[in-house]
Amino acid sequence: MTTGLPVSTILLITGFCLSLIGLWGMLTQRNILRIIIGFAVIDTGLHIVMVATGYITGGTAPIIDSALSKADAARRAIDPIPSALVVTAIVIGLSVTAVMLSFAIRLYAAKKTLSIDAFTESKW
Amino acid sequence: MMRRVFALLIVVLFAVVFWRIVGGYQELQALRPLAEHYVVQGPIELGAPNIVTGILITYRGFDTLGEVAVLFMVAASVGLLLKEDSTTAESADQDRPRREAGEIVRTGTQVLLPMILTFGAYVIVNGHLSAGGGFQGGAIVASGVMLMLLARPGATLNVALLSVVESFAGVIYVFIGILGLVLAGGFLDARFLPRGQFGAFFSAGAIPLISALLGVKVGAELSVILDRFRS
Question: What is the DSSP letter of A111?
Answer without folding.
Answer: H
